[in-house]
Amino acid sequence: MLSLIEVQCPHCGARGQIMMPPVGAIIIGPCPQCSELVVVFCGHVLPLDKHIMESGSLDERREHLLGVLMEFLQDRIGRLMSEEA
Question: What are the residues whose beta carbons fall under 8 Å from the beta carbon of 56, sequence distance 6 or more?
Answer without folding.
Answer: 64
